[in-house]
Each structure stands twice: as structure tokens, then as C-alpha cells.
Amino acid sequence: MLGPVETRSVSPVFVGRTDELDTLNDALARAAAAEPQALLLGGEAGVGKTRLVEEFATAATRRTAVVAVGGCVEIGADGLPFAPFSTALRALRDALPKEFAAAAAGQEEELARLLPDLGEAAAGRHDEQGMARLFELTARLLERVAADHTVVLVLEDLHWADASTRHLLAYLFRTLRAGRLLVLATYRSDDIHRRHPLRPLLAELDRVRTIRRIELARFTREEACRQIAGILAAEPDPAQVDEIYERSDGNAFFIEELAVAAAEGNCTGLTDSLRDLLLVRVEALPDSAQRVARIVAEGGSTVEYRLIAAVARLTEDDLIEALRAAVGANLLTVTRAGDGYRFRHSLVREAVADDLLPGERSRLNRRYAEALEADPALVPADARVMRLASYWYHAHDAAKALPAVLAAAVVARRRHAYTEQLGLLERAMELWDDAPQEVRSALRPVDYTEVYPPCGCDPATTPLRYLDLMAEAAVAGRFGGERERALKITKRALRLLEEEPDPLRAAWFWVQRSRLVQALARGDGWRELGTAQDLVRGLPPSEVHAEVLAVAANWSMQRRPGPEALAAAERAVEYARMVGARETELHARLTLGGLTVESGDPEAGLAQMQQVLRETRAEGMHHVAGRAYVNLPSALQSVGRDREAVPLLREGIEFCRGYGLLDSGAWVWGNLSEALYALGQWEEAAEAAAHATRVGHSAKPRGAGALRLAHLALARGDLAEAGRQLAAARAWYGTHDPMPQQLLPLARITLGVAAADGRIADARAALLPALDAGFPPGTHRYGWPLLLAAATAEADARTLPAARPGRAEILDRLSAAVRTLTTGVPLWHAYGQWTRAELLRAEGRDTVGTWSPVVTAFECLDRPYDLARVRHRLAGALLAEGGDDERDRAVELLRLAAAVAAHLGARPLADAVARLAQRARLTLTRASRQAPADPAAALGLTSRERDVLGLVAAGRTNRQIAEVLFISPKTASVHVSNILGKLGVSGRGEAAAVAHRLGLFAAGTLAAETPG
After folding, report:
1. What are the strands, taking DSSP E only, across 63-150?
2. Is the pLDDT of residue 210 over 90?
3. Is the torsion defined by CA of 306, 310, 315, 321 positive or negative?
4. Any idea what DSSP says for residue 249?
5. How far apart are alpha carbons 561 and 570 in whole angstroms?
6. For residues 28 and 59, what is the distance between their CA atoms, to the nearest angstrom?
């Protein structure tokens, strides 16, 4: 290609950057200690970012770190999807082949989307979790490779990054928590204008505390002087330093160019335009070298030697001489791989490219495209299709560009680069009218659009239509998170379908709009689904028809479960089977199973869901299996079988992690937290909830995790933390799409926090919207805990004056709501009994007979915290009735409740148990030593008589004594008579005086005995 070339050594001395190098070296040391590091390095063009990175990489290599560098590639105006990651991962695999192979084992097909060298990318279904799945697998790959080796991953020129690269980088920065890994990304800060796509990402990353951001400043005059001295290999003239420094304004690259120009006696180096300065270097080259420079400038960030030769059309000797001249002038440099060339600095390439005439630019792009078509091996296989599409597009040849752009869109989708796919499809729509009819008629629907009917007939013989492009673009926008763009496309498509009616296609687009409206928080999507159902009603079975029914049934299961939803799910299963839509069938069967459980036939519904899980795993439908791992354990939990759900949930976590199903994994973590809470494993429940808030890609599973944390904090008495997590859950859930499974638990925690804080009016305010809305069939799972919390709050506030207004109405409405909820399984039967008992307590009418069956019901369930709470209530009822047997039973119940409260850290329950024991003068701990003798014992007073004497001394009447000690007034009167006899006094006043004189009660104790 090209032998050794003698070049002038430019800036041989590394100048300044001490603080920046210290920061990078500190990050390297932390990474080596298994504390992953993320850094952003920004600075204007030419300020010295690349030189700093090279210096740091050299030092890191000396410290045995493995450095893998990848740069964002600019081809015309298009970046290659994941280009820097592909390059860096390839370098990492070359450096650590065994470790890389072990880390990628089992996931090669998926990871091949980033690194095609691993083999063919998986040809499975695409969905909204596809990109997130790839990101998760990439993060795990890096963590495994960096388990035993310090790895430095450098991603350069982020300002050119495609959207997929930006999304992946953001994901890595947020989620990397293990491995000896340092990720460093550089970008040109002066390019980040207000609408630059990198700007929102930088703002987002600024809020992540673990990311360090370095802004590279320009050189000071002293640093500029040292740089000039290094370039000139001599001490520069101070006047010359002043002139160069003033002209360059401290920019390292411009200092270098100006110093070299001055050394070569080029007076134009100090003209008014620095752009002219850069072009002067080009214009000083021979004509053939200038021509080659222009070719390379238009070819992209790097251009292969053989491709340059094909485009330049020079003899090999002439081409080599031209390249030698450009390299010798420090204009071009050989690429790291040694197979091509790039400009030494992007500023020079941009100056040369900007100097091209419009016709010259399109002609060069045509030559590149023709050369690549003639010999596809001129560029790496993974970049070929994308580059050909870019060259033809910028050659302004619609006939050639349209098929090339569509082929590139397919490649982008296969790499899960959905945003790039959308951009290419939009470009195809732009080219559509300009392309000749014969070109368009030769195109065929080739890409993935879910169940969209490409043409209503045989796609192999019917041409691609503009509407088909819109369908592909809508799906790409939804999958890539570009929902606004996708929504506009669906709107335009539906307008076209008004002119040329097609019910199936229109129904498909309405389903897309429903999903997009929900994702954009514009509504619940039911109006759009209703329109889709109207369009397919009466039509023969089809995949679209089955999909509409399945989506509508799933929507109803989450928001309006009942007979209509069940019927829709049954029809969806039937239609999907008739037309062979296997995936739709499995989804519909999963929905049908969940609805069957809620309708009162849990065994049949659970069996259906278990069968779907087995089939999806056997058939490799991982995304449907991920949903089954969410819904099946949730259905088990809904009928109180939490212990049975836990191993299935743990299995689901491993499954979702293995296949990168982030959102499914987050839901599974949330469900595991709920199950562990019920089973009394609160520490593990908190860890699972925290996982749910971190691993999810979407907002709602994170909201569920935050709500679980709020529930735990409330049960532990941490109202501040409960309030914070409740606010976080509300923020994640939003207000656009109210679902009972979110609204009712939110109301329950809101009510609980308000009640614990003594704000009974706020507690009622949280309850009323749910009472007004009612509890449709299938919502009992969320309705019973809310009604129980409300009844408990009313009972606890029974004696508060602030609770009296509106109290009777609230209790009536609660009683009415209780009558509407089903109790078809033991768990909800127990909750029904408990709620009714709390309502009786709220009226002061609860008895031992009220609470005994509640305790019995919960003793048959595996819910220790709930059992402890109802045992506490039964103990209170026993003490209120009095009697030694009742007191003994109460002691045992309170001891059991106290032990559970202490184990779980349930402070409110522990405090309630302690207060009740104190009021009843019960000792819950079994003391092994005798209490010291006191005057009361010498007088023959029993423990109970001592308690009564204390209250007599405090001025209490027999009735008040009975209330405090949970005995009858008659029993209290008997105790008082016995005390008077033992003390040898005739009245209560004398008894009080004797008690004070003998010091039977410490100061302040009598006041403390006042019932509160």
C-alpha cells in the first residue's frame, strides 16, 4: 500500500493537562480496584482531546490495562449504527480472545448485531425490548471480560454518534456496576448547538453522580510557548509566540498549524481566516495529492486504500506518490488497522469537504457507489450496505438510492438500530416519488412489520407500496423510542386510508396509535382500540383481526377485567389458531389464563398459563416467555400462593437476565418483592424492589418497584421514606392511563401515610376516588388491602374529634364496598373477615368473637405480618373482656406478635403491642430472675393490687381503673376494698397518702399512667 514516509514531527512534547491526566489516572486506579468508571471528555475542535487520550492510553497500557478504542464514523451526514462499539469490541476480542469468547458464550447470535464477526445475527422477532435486550447483553459482556483484566473502553467523536450508539452509551453509563472497567467518551463541545442530538444526552448524564465530566480548556500562553518550542525544536521568539498565541486563541491544533507555517516561511499562515490556513496546506500539495485529498474528504472519516484507488482512477504509482505527499505534509495519516487513510484532524477534512463544489460532491459520491457496487469487497462487510446507501443518496440518484436505502434499513433493523432504520425509511419515503415506476414496481415488502398485511395478497409478486413503508417506519419509531415521529406517520397513513379504504390496514394502524398514545402519556389508548375493533368486526379471521382482539383483551385485563375481556381473549385465541398466528395465540392464551383466574376458576387459569410458559420456552419465544414469568407468578400471588410463586420468580429473573428482557425482568423483581413481603422476608423484599427500580427500561415497572419500597417503609414506620417513594411511584406511573393495579395500591399507601401521620381527612380523600369508581370484577386483589387500610384508619381514629365529621358516611360506604368484593379464595376470605372486624372496631362493637375467626383464618395462610397484626387485635379484645384466662391468652398472642414485629423491623406494630401490654400491666418477656423486694410486697399487695393502688393514688375512679386495666368496674371495686384492708385505712385518700409516704411509685409514674 504505502511504505515508510518521512514526516515532520509535530508537537513531539506533550504539554500541560496535568489535572486532566490526574483525573483519568485516578479513574483507572479505581477501575483496577473493581469500581467501574465512566468519564466524558469534551472540548472544542483542535483543543487536544485525541492527544490527551493517546497519552492516557499509553500510560494505561504500561499499567497492564487493555485499551480498546472505537471512533464514531461520519459518512456524509450519516453515522454507522454502533460503529464505535463494533470497532472497540473487535479490538477487545483481539486482545483477550479467550476471555471474550467465554463472556459471549451462548449470546453470540444476539451480540453479532454489534460485532458481526461473531456470526449471523439472530433472526428472531423484534419488539420494543429488542434494543434494551441488546444493551443489557453488551453490559454483561463488558463486565465479564473486565472481571479479571482492567479494560479501558474509549469511544471517540461522540458528536458524530448515531442515536443507537448514544442510547447504548447512556445505558452503560447508568448500569455498569461490576468489573474492572473504565469507559471514556470524547466529544467536540463547540459542535453541540441547541438542537444537536447529543445535547439532551449530555444533560441527562450530568445528573448521574457517578459520571465524571472533563472539559478541556485551551492552552495558556506559557503552555503555547512550550508547544511551539517542541515543534520548532528551539526556543521561539517571544514576539512570534505572542503573535501565534493571539491568532490561535490557545487552540492546540491551530498553534501547531501556525507554528509549522511560520517555520516553513509561509506568511499566509497568519491570514484572517484559519480555514484558509488549513486549505493552504492542501493547496501546497501536487495536483494529484490535492485530488486524492478531496476524494478522501468526501469518502468519510476513514477510507480504505483499495476504495480510494477505485475512485481516484490513477495508476498505482501515481496514487502512492499522491498519498505519500499528503501523508508527508501531515494532511493524511494511516488508519490504526493499516488498511486505509484518514485526515490527521477532522478540521482539515471538513475544510476540504466544504471547499468542494456541489456537482463535484455528487460526482464523487457516485464514483464511490459505482466502485462499491462493482467490487463489494472494497469495504468491510458489516459497513458495506450502509455506506452504499449513503453514497447513492448523496449522489442524488433516486433510482439507485431508493433500493439501497431500503436495504440499509433492513440492516439497521437487524442490528436493533431502530432509530437509524426509521431515518432510512423516512429517506426512502422522501425518494419515493422521484424514483422511476419501474424501480418501485420491482421492490418487495422485505422487512418486519408485526402482523401488518403487506399487500393483502402474495407479497412475493406484489410491489411494495408507500403505505407499506409507513407501516415499517411506524414500527421502527415505536421500537426506537421515536414515538412522536411514529405517531405522525400513523396519522398520515390513516389519512391515506381514508382515500383508499382498507379496513385491515386501517385497524393495524389504529392499534399502533393506541400503543403510541399510551407510551406518550396522551391517553389510555382505548378509543383507538375501539376504532380498530369496529373496523375488523364482521370481517373473516385474519392475523390483524386476532391481534386486535388480543391487544384489546390484554388492555381490558389490566383496566376493566370482566366477562367482556374474557370473551375477547377467547375469540383472540380462536382466530389466532385459525390463521396460524402462533405468537398472537400464545399472548392471547396468557391473557385468557389470567382472566380465568380472576373470574373465579384459578386452577384452570393457572394450568393454562403454565402450559403457555412451557410452550414458549420450548419454541424459543423468549419475549412471550418473559411475559409469562411476570403474569403466572402474579396470578399465583393473587390467590395467596406466594411461596409457590417465589421459585418461579427467581427462575424468571435468571431467564430475563439471560435474554436481556429488561422490562419483564423489572416486573418480575417487583412481583418477587411483593411475595417476599407477604412471606415476612422484608430485607430481601427491599432488595428486590430496589432492583425493580433500576433494571427496567420503561417507567411503569420502576413505579411498581418504588411503590413496593413505599409499602415497606410505611410498615416499618419510616413515613418520610414512604412519602419519597410514593412520590417517585406517582412520577413513574404518570396520570394519563389509570389502571386499578396502580391506582388502588397508590391510594392504599397514600391513605396509610396520612393515617399514620394523624391526617384522617387526607386519608379519606385518598379513599374517596376509589369508592366513587367502584371495584370492577377482578380488582379484589387490590381492593381488599385498600378497604382494610381505610377501615383500620377509621378504627384507630375513633376517639379523635377531627374524625367525627363525615365518619358515619365513610363507614357506611366502606361497608357497602365490602359487600361488593369477592372472597373466592382463602386469602381474600380472610381479608374480608379482617376488614369487617375493623369496621366493627371503628364502631366500638368488636369482641373476642369478632377477632377469633380472623386469627384462625390467617393461621392457615403463610403471611406472618398479617397474622401478627390480627393477633394483636384479638389480644386487645381478650383484655377488654377481662378474666385471668383471657389475660393469659392475650400475653401469648402479644408475645408472638412482638416477636414478628421485632424480626421484621415493623416499628408501628411493635409500638402498638408494647402500649397494649403496658396498659394491661402485662410482662411479655419471661424474666429468669426475681424482682427486688419492695414495700408493696411487704404489705402483701399482689401485682394487680399494686397496679390498682397506683391508679387510686392518681385519682382514678373504679370505672376509669377498669378501662385502663381491661377489667370490669366490679372487679376494680373488689381490688380497691382488698387494698384498703391490707393498708389498714378507711378510704381512698388515705390509701393514696400511704402509697406516697412509702414511696411505692417514682415521681412522674402516676402521670404516665393516665390513659391516652
Report:
1. 66-71, 74-75, 78-79
2. no
3. negative
4. T
5. 14
6. 10
Sheet of strand 181-188: strand arrangement:
66-71, 151-156, 181-188, 37-43, 211-215
556 CB burial (10 A radius; 0-12, 13-18, 19+): buried
Residue 898 φ then ψ, to 5°? -65, -40
SS3 at position 334: strand
Q: Provide the pLDDT for residue 459.
A: 59
Distance CA 598, CA 590 (A): 13
Grid cell at residue 502: 382498507
Q: Name the nearest CA neighbour of 615 among 591, 586, 593.
A: 586
Determine contact, residues 563/527, Cβ cutoff 8 Å.
no
Residue count (the chain): 1012
CA within 13 Å, CB half, 142? 36
What is the band of 865 on the pLDDT scale with cuts at 50, 70, 90?
very high
Q: State the DSSP H helix or E strand holding residue 884, giving kind and residue range, or none if neither.
A: helix 884-904
DSSP helix/strand/coil, 212: strand
Contact between 965 and 920 under an 8 Å Cβ cutoff? The reply is: yes
Q: Which among 973, 944, 937 has a CA at the least distance from the CA of 957?
A: 973
1001, amino acid identity: F
Distance CA 637, CA 781 (A): 9
Cell numbers representing residue 83 in the block:
460503529
**Beta sheet of 332-334, edge-to-edge order:** 303-304, 340-343, 332-334
The CA distance from 472 to 629, in Å, is 29
Query: Helices (DSSP H) in 415-542: which residue ranges?
Result: 418-432, 437-441, 466-479, 483-499, 503-519, 526-536
Query: Minimal CA–CA distance to 324: which of 282, 300, 289?
Result: 289
Classified as helix, coil or strand, 215 is strand
pLDDT in tens, 479-528: 888 889 999 999 999 999 998 889 999 999 999 999 898 887 788 888 99
Select from 655, 674, 673 the least CA-distant residue to 665.
655
Element housing 1008 (H / E): helix 1005-1008
Confidence of residue 126 (pLDDT cuts 50, 70, 90): low
Between the CA of residue 966 and those of 653, 655, 882, 886, 918, what are the distances in Å? 51, 56, 6, 10, 11
* Distances 494 to 497, 532, 535, 564, 935 between C-alpha atoms, Å: 5, 12, 13, 28, 93
* Residue 590 grid cell: 396468557
Which residue carries 396470578 as its cell?
635
Coil, strand or helix: which one is 550? Answer: helix
What sign does the CA torsion over 730, 735, 738, 743 have? positive
What is the DSSP code string of 374-400?
H-GGGS-HHHHHHHHHHHHHHTT-HHH
Q: Could you tell me the three cell numbers for 240?
A: 512570534
* Measured distance CA(709)–CA(676) in Å, rounded: 12
Whether pLDDT at 846 is above 50? yes
Of 891, 879, 876, the C-alpha closest to 968 is 879
Q: 177 exposed, middle or buried (CB, 10 Å; 0-12, 13-18, 19+)?
A: exposed
Instruction: Compute the distance between CA of residue 323 and CA of residue 305 in angstroms, rounded to an integer.
Output: 10
